[in-house]
Protein backbone atom coordinates (compact mmCIF):
# COMPACT_ATOMS: atom_id res chain seq x y z
CA UNK A 1 0.00 0.00 0.00
CA UNK A 2 1.00 3.62 -0.40
CA UNK A 3 1.40 5.61 2.85
CA UNK A 4 -1.18 8.27 3.71
CA UNK A 5 0.00 11.76 2.66
CA UNK A 6 2.45 13.38 5.07
CA UNK A 7 4.64 16.49 5.26
CA UNK A 8 8.38 15.90 5.07
CA UNK A 9 11.01 17.77 7.08
CA UNK A 10 14.73 17.31 6.37
CA UNK A 11 16.62 19.09 9.18
CA UNK A 12 20.39 19.48 8.84
CA UNK A 13 21.28 19.87 12.54
CA UNK A 14 20.10 18.41 15.83
CA UNK A 15 18.65 21.80 16.83
CA UNK A 16 16.65 21.98 13.60
CA UNK A 17 15.51 18.39 14.14
CA UNK A 18 14.30 19.16 17.67
CA UNK A 19 12.42 22.19 16.30
CA UNK A 20 10.82 20.11 13.54
CA UNK A 21 9.73 17.50 16.08
CA UNK A 22 8.35 20.15 18.45
CA UNK A 23 6.47 21.87 15.60
CA UNK A 24 4.88 18.57 14.55
CA UNK A 25 3.40 17.88 18.00
CA UNK A 26 1.95 14.43 18.62
CA UNK A 27 1.57 13.68 14.91
CA UNK A 28 5.24 13.83 13.98
CA UNK A 29 7.37 10.73 13.45
CA UNK A 30 11.15 10.73 13.50
CA UNK A 31 12.55 8.89 10.48
CA UNK A 32 16.01 7.32 10.60
CA UNK A 33 16.72 4.64 7.97
CA UNK A 34 12.98 4.15 7.43
CA UNK A 35 13.44 0.35 7.36
CA UNK A 36 10.83 -0.24 10.06
CA UNK A 37 8.89 3.02 9.89
CA UNK A 38 8.13 3.03 6.15
CA UNK A 39 6.65 -0.51 6.12
CA UNK A 40 4.45 0.47 9.08
CA UNK A 41 3.35 3.63 7.22
CA UNK A 42 2.65 1.64 4.06
CA UNK A 43 0.39 -0.65 6.09
CA UNK A 44 -1.23 2.53 7.47
CA UNK A 45 -0.50 1.36 11.01
CA UNK A 46 1.21 4.75 11.39
CA UNK A 47 -0.15 7.85 9.66
CA UNK A 48 2.05 10.73 10.84
CA UNK A 49 1.23 14.24 9.61
CA UNK A 50 4.95 14.95 9.42
CA UNK A 51 8.02 12.77 9.04
CA UNK A 52 11.21 14.39 10.36
CA UNK A 53 14.02 12.65 8.47
CA UNK A 54 17.36 12.69 10.34
CA UNK A 55 19.44 11.54 7.34
CA UNK A 56 21.06 14.96 6.82
CA UNK A 57 21.97 15.49 10.49
CA UNK A 58 25.68 14.71 10.20
CA UNK A 59 26.38 15.19 13.93
CA UNK A 60 24.30 12.08 14.68
CA UNK A 61 26.57 9.81 12.62
CA UNK A 62 29.82 8.08 13.46
CA UNK A 63 31.66 6.43 16.32
CA UNK A 64 34.11 8.20 18.64
CA UNK A 65 36.10 7.53 21.79
CA UNK A 66 35.28 9.41 24.97
CA UNK A 67 37.42 8.35 27.95
CA UNK A 68 36.38 4.88 29.07
CA UNK A 69 33.48 4.68 26.60
CA UNK A 70 32.87 4.56 22.88
CA UNK A 71 30.02 6.71 21.65
CA UNK A 72 27.90 5.57 18.71
CA UNK A 73 25.80 8.23 16.95
CA UNK A 74 22.17 7.22 16.56
CA UNK A 75 22.25 7.68 12.76
CA UNK A 76 25.28 5.43 12.24
CA UNK A 77 24.14 2.82 9.75
CA UNK A 78 24.36 -0.89 10.47
CA UNK A 79 27.02 -1.24 7.70
CA UNK A 80 29.15 1.51 9.24
CA UNK A 81 28.83 -0.14 12.68
CA UNK A 82 30.07 -3.46 11.26
CA UNK A 83 33.12 -1.81 9.69
CA UNK A 84 34.04 0.44 12.60
CA UNK A 85 37.50 -0.19 14.20
CA UNK A 86 36.54 1.18 17.67
CA UNK A 87 33.55 -1.15 17.85
CA UNK A 88 35.74 -4.07 16.73
CA UNK A 89 38.27 -3.26 19.46
CA UNK A 90 36.07 -2.38 22.44
CA UNK A 91 32.63 -3.92 21.82
CA UNK A 92 32.87 -6.57 19.06
CA UNK A 93 29.56 -8.05 20.25
CA UNK A 94 27.78 -5.13 18.55
CA UNK A 95 29.39 -5.81 15.18
CA UNK A 96 28.79 -9.55 15.50
CA UNK A 97 25.08 -9.08 16.24
CA UNK A 98 24.65 -6.37 13.59
CA UNK A 99 26.04 -8.73 10.94
CA UNK A 100 23.00 -10.94 11.58
CA UNK A 101 20.51 -8.09 11.03
CA UNK A 102 18.50 -8.47 7.81
CA UNK A 103 20.39 -8.21 4.52
CA UNK A 104 22.96 -5.82 3.00
CA UNK A 105 20.37 -3.41 1.61
CA UNK A 106 18.59 -3.03 4.96
CA UNK A 107 21.91 -2.72 6.78
CA UNK A 108 22.97 0.01 4.35
CA UNK A 109 19.93 2.18 5.26
CA UNK A 110 18.94 1.00 8.76
CA UNK A 111 20.60 2.69 11.73
CA UNK A 112 21.89 1.69 15.14
CA UNK A 113 19.68 4.27 16.87
CA UNK A 114 16.62 3.43 14.78
CA UNK A 115 16.83 -0.25 15.70
CA UNK A 116 17.10 0.61 19.40
CA UNK A 117 14.36 3.27 19.36
CA UNK A 118 12.03 0.87 17.51
CA UNK A 119 12.48 -1.61 20.41
CA UNK A 120 11.16 -4.67 18.60
CA UNK A 121 11.51 -7.63 21.02
CA UNK A 122 12.88 -9.72 18.12
CA UNK A 123 15.40 -6.99 17.21
CA UNK A 124 18.99 -8.04 17.79
CA UNK A 125 20.56 -4.88 19.17
CA UNK A 126 18.50 -4.17 22.33
CA UNK A 127 19.74 -7.32 24.14
CA UNK A 128 23.28 -6.46 23.08
CA UNK A 129 22.92 -2.95 24.55
CA UNK A 130 21.69 -4.52 27.81
CA UNK A 131 24.56 -7.00 27.99
CA UNK A 132 27.10 -4.21 27.41
CA UNK A 133 25.51 -1.91 30.04
CA UNK A 134 25.11 0.84 27.44
CA UNK A 135 23.64 4.26 28.17
CA UNK A 136 21.27 6.18 25.92
CA UNK A 137 21.62 9.94 25.47
CA UNK A 138 18.31 11.61 24.65
CA UNK A 139 17.81 15.25 23.62
CA UNK A 140 14.50 17.02 23.99
CA UNK A 141 12.84 20.35 24.67
CA UNK A 142 14.13 20.20 28.28
CA UNK A 143 17.77 19.50 27.32
CA UNK A 144 19.70 16.22 27.43
CA UNK A 145 19.36 13.25 29.73
CA UNK A 146 21.06 9.86 29.96
CA UNK A 147 19.08 6.66 30.44
CA UNK A 148 20.73 3.29 31.28
CA UNK A 149 19.84 0.45 28.90
CA UNK A 150 18.08 -1.33 31.78
CA UNK A 151 15.54 1.55 31.92
CA UNK A 152 15.30 2.38 28.22
CA UNK A 153 13.19 -0.58 27.06
CA UNK A 154 9.85 -0.11 28.80
CA UNK A 155 7.40 -2.42 26.99
CA UNK A 156 6.57 -3.90 23.58
CA UNK A 157 7.81 -1.33 20.98
CA UNK A 158 7.95 1.23 23.79
CA UNK A 159 10.99 3.02 25.16
CA UNK A 160 11.77 5.75 27.67
CA UNK A 161 11.84 8.31 24.81
CA UNK A 162 9.37 11.04 25.75
CA UNK A 163 7.37 13.35 23.48
CA UNK A 164 9.67 15.58 21.46
CA UNK A 165 12.81 13.59 22.36
CA UNK A 166 15.40 12.27 19.92
CA UNK A 167 17.91 9.50 20.63
CA UNK A 168 21.23 11.22 19.96
CA UNK A 169 23.89 8.63 20.79
CA UNK A 170 24.63 5.50 22.74
CA UNK A 171 27.58 5.30 25.14
CA UNK A 172 29.12 1.85 25.49
CA UNK A 173 31.75 1.19 28.20
CA UNK A 174 35.01 -0.07 26.70
CA UNK A 175 35.19 -3.80 27.32
CA UNK A 176 38.85 -4.75 27.38
CA UNK A 177 39.68 -8.34 28.33
CA UNK A 178 36.07 -9.53 28.01
CA UNK A 179 34.93 -12.44 25.85
CA UNK A 180 31.71 -11.92 23.88
CA UNK A 181 29.41 -13.84 21.58
CA UNK A 182 25.99 -13.39 19.97
CA UNK A 183 24.14 -16.65 19.32
CA UNK A 184 21.06 -16.20 17.12
CA UNK A 185 18.53 -18.82 16.13
CA UNK A 186 16.38 -18.22 13.06
CA UNK A 187 14.89 -20.51 10.46
CA UNK A 188 16.40 -18.90 7.37
CA UNK A 189 19.38 -16.64 6.86
CA UNK A 190 18.61 -12.92 7.25
CA UNK A 191 15.41 -13.52 9.23
CA UNK A 192 14.54 -12.03 12.61
CA UNK A 193 15.58 -13.91 15.76
CA UNK A 194 13.25 -16.60 17.06
CA UNK A 195 15.47 -16.37 20.15
CA UNK A 196 19.00 -15.03 20.54
CA UNK A 197 21.50 -14.61 23.36
CA UNK A 198 24.15 -11.94 23.86
CA UNK A 199 26.90 -13.08 26.23
CA UNK A 200 29.58 -10.87 27.74
CA UNK A 201 31.98 -12.62 30.12
CA UNK A 202 35.21 -11.75 31.96
CA UNK A 203 37.38 -14.59 33.25
CA UNK A 204 40.20 -14.50 35.80
CA UNK A 205 42.47 -17.47 36.47
CA UNK A 206 40.09 -20.01 34.93
CA UNK A 207 37.01 -18.69 36.77
CA UNK A 208 34.23 -16.43 35.56
CA UNK A 209 34.62 -13.11 37.37
CA UNK A 210 31.69 -11.27 35.72
CA UNK A 211 28.93 -12.30 33.32
CA UNK A 212 26.19 -10.31 31.61
CA UNK A 213 23.67 -12.15 29.48
CA UNK A 214 21.03 -10.42 27.29
CA UNK A 215 18.06 -12.32 25.84
CA UNK A 216 16.32 -11.43 22.55
CA UNK A 217 12.62 -12.24 22.00
CA UNK A 218 12.01 -13.82 25.41
CA UNK A 219 9.37 -11.26 26.44
CA UNK A 220 7.96 -7.89 25.36
CA UNK A 221 11.34 -6.26 26.07
CA UNK A 222 14.92 -7.53 25.96
CA UNK A 223 15.89 -9.19 29.24
CA UNK A 224 18.95 -9.91 31.36
CA UNK A 225 19.24 -13.59 32.36
CA UNK A 226 19.94 -12.76 36.02
CA UNK A 227 19.78 -16.38 37.25
CA UNK A 228 22.43 -17.44 34.74
CA UNK A 229 24.62 -14.46 35.61
CA UNK A 230 24.38 -15.30 39.31
CA UNK A 231 25.25 -18.97 38.69
CA UNK A 232 28.19 -18.10 36.43
CA UNK A 233 29.81 -15.55 38.72
CA UNK A 234 32.66 -17.25 40.54
CA UNK A 235 32.12 -20.56 38.69
CA UNK A 236 34.90 -22.38 36.88
CA UNK A 237 34.92 -21.66 33.15
CA UNK A 238 34.19 -25.28 32.27
CA UNK A 239 31.60 -26.86 29.98
CA UNK A 240 29.78 -28.49 32.91
CA UNK A 241 29.55 -25.32 35.01
CA UNK A 242 28.34 -23.32 32.00
CA UNK A 243 25.71 -25.94 31.08
CA UNK A 244 24.36 -25.98 34.61
CA UNK A 245 24.18 -22.14 34.77
CA UNK A 246 22.59 -21.94 31.29
CA UNK A 247 19.78 -24.24 32.45
CA UNK A 248 18.42 -21.18 34.33
CA UNK A 249 18.10 -19.03 31.17
CA UNK A 250 14.30 -19.19 30.98
CA UNK A 251 13.75 -18.03 34.57
CA UNK A 252 11.54 -14.95 34.70
CA UNK A 253 10.91 -14.90 30.92
CA UNK A 254 7.52 -14.62 29.20
CA UNK A 255 8.09 -15.31 25.50
CA UNK A 256 5.21 -15.19 23.04
CA UNK A 257 3.88 -18.08 20.96
CA UNK A 258 3.59 -17.49 17.22
CA UNK A 259 3.92 -19.28 13.90
CA UNK A 260 7.69 -19.64 14.39
CA UNK A 261 7.70 -21.12 17.88
CA UNK A 262 5.62 -21.87 20.96
CA UNK A 263 6.62 -20.21 24.23
CA UNK A 264 7.94 -23.45 25.79
CA UNK A 265 10.10 -24.12 22.72
CA UNK A 266 11.54 -20.59 23.02
CA UNK A 267 12.31 -21.25 26.69
CA UNK A 268 14.13 -24.45 25.76
CA UNK A 269 16.03 -22.62 23.02
CA UNK A 270 17.13 -19.94 25.49
CA UNK A 271 18.93 -22.54 27.61
CA UNK A 272 20.66 -24.13 24.61
CA UNK A 273 21.69 -20.82 23.04
CA UNK A 274 22.92 -19.44 26.38
CA UNK A 275 25.17 -22.48 26.83
CA UNK A 276 26.58 -21.98 23.33
CA UNK A 277 26.96 -18.20 23.68
CA UNK A 278 28.76 -18.37 27.05
CA UNK A 279 30.98 -21.29 25.97
CA UNK A 280 32.04 -19.36 22.91
CA UNK A 281 32.57 -16.15 24.93
CA UNK A 282 34.99 -17.93 27.29
CA UNK A 283 36.74 -19.63 24.36
CA UNK A 284 35.52 -23.22 24.83
C1 LIG B 1 13.44 -7.11 5.63
C2 LIG B 1 13.90 -6.63 7.00
C3 LIG B 1 14.51 -7.52 7.84
C4 LIG B 1 14.95 -7.11 9.10
N1 LIG B 1 15.58 -8.01 9.91
C5 LIG B 1 16.04 -7.60 11.10
C6 LIG B 1 16.73 -8.51 11.96
O1 LIG B 1 16.97 -9.67 11.65
N2 LIG B 1 17.14 -8.06 13.18
C7 LIG B 1 16.94 -6.76 13.58
O2 LIG B 1 17.35 -6.40 14.67
N3 LIG B 1 16.31 -5.88 12.77
C8 LIG B 1 15.86 -6.27 11.56
N4 LIG B 1 15.23 -5.36 10.75
C9 LIG B 1 15.03 -3.98 11.23
C10 LIG B 1 16.24 -3.14 10.93
O3 LIG B 1 17.23 -3.38 11.91
C11 LIG B 1 15.89 -1.65 10.98
O4 LIG B 1 16.99 -0.97 10.47
C12 LIG B 1 15.57 -1.06 12.33
O5 LIG B 1 14.58 -1.76 13.02
C13 LIG B 1 15.03 0.35 12.23
O6 LIG B 1 16.06 1.18 11.94
P1 LIG B 1 15.84 2.44 11.01
O7 LIG B 1 17.07 3.26 11.13
O8 LIG B 1 15.43 2.02 9.66
O9 LIG B 1 14.65 3.22 11.78
P2 LIG B 1 13.25 3.77 11.26
O10 LIG B 1 12.49 2.69 10.57
O11 LIG B 1 13.44 5.03 10.52
O12 LIG B 1 12.58 4.09 12.67
C14 LIG B 1 12.12 3.07 13.53
C15 LIG B 1 11.41 3.71 14.74
O13 LIG B 1 12.35 4.35 15.58
C16 LIG B 1 12.08 5.74 15.71
N5 LIG B 1 13.39 6.41 15.66
C17 LIG B 1 14.36 6.17 14.76
N6 LIG B 1 15.46 6.89 15.05
C18 LIG B 1 15.16 7.61 16.16
C19 LIG B 1 15.92 8.52 16.96
N7 LIG B 1 17.19 8.84 16.67
N8 LIG B 1 15.32 9.08 18.02
C20 LIG B 1 14.03 8.74 18.35
N9 LIG B 1 13.29 7.86 17.64
C21 LIG B 1 13.85 7.31 16.55
C22 LIG B 1 11.17 6.08 14.53
O14 LIG B 1 10.31 7.18 14.81
C23 LIG B 1 10.40 4.79 14.36
O15 LIG B 1 9.33 4.74 15.29
C24 LIG B 1 14.76 -5.75 9.50
C25 LIG B 1 14.14 -4.85 8.64
C26 LIG B 1 13.70 -5.27 7.40
C27 LIG B 1 13.05 -4.27 6.48
Describe the structure.
Helix 10 runs antiparallel to helix 11 (239-246). The longest helix is centred in the last third of the chain and has 19 residues, at 263-281. 33% of the residues lie in helices and 26% in strands. With 284 residues, the protein is an alpha+beta fold. Flavin-adenine dinucleotide is lined by residues 29-37, 54, 74, 101-102, 106, 110-111, 113-115, 117-118, 123-125, 161, 166-167, 192.
Secondary-structure topology with pairs:
Blueprint: E1 7-9, H1 14-24, E2 28-31, H2 37-42, E3 50-53, E4 63-66, E5 69-73, H3 78-83, H4 85-90, H5 92-98, H6 104-109, H7 112-118, H8 125-131, E6 135-140, E7 143-148, H9 149-152, E8 153-155, E9 158-159, E10 166-173, E11 179-185, E12 195-204, E13 207-216, E14 223-224, H10 226-232, H11 239-246, H12 263-281
Parallel strand pairs: 1-3, 2-3
Antiparallel strand pairs: 4-5, 5-10, 6-7, 6-10, 8-9, 11-12, 12-13, 13-14
Helix pairs in contact: 10-11, 11-12
> How is the main sheet built?
5 strands, antiparallel
Contiguous low-pLDDT stretches (5 residues minimum) are: none
Which radius of gyration do the C-alpha atoms yield? 19 Å
Please report which band the strand proportion falls in: under 5%, 5-15%, 15-25%, 25-35%, 35-45% or over 45%: 25-35%
Ions, cofactors and other bound molecules? flavin-adenine dinucleotide
Tally of contiguous helical segments: 12
What is the H/E order? EHEHEEEHHHHHHEEHEEEEEEEHHH
How much helical structure, as a percent, in the residues? 25-40%
Terminal-residue CA separation = 49 Å
- Structural class, from helix and strand content? alpha+beta
**What is the quaternary state of this protein?**
single chain
Please report the total strand number as a whole number.
14
Mean pLDDT score, rounded? 97
Give me the side-by-side strand order of the main sheet: 4-5-10-6-7
Q: What's the overall geometry?
A: globular
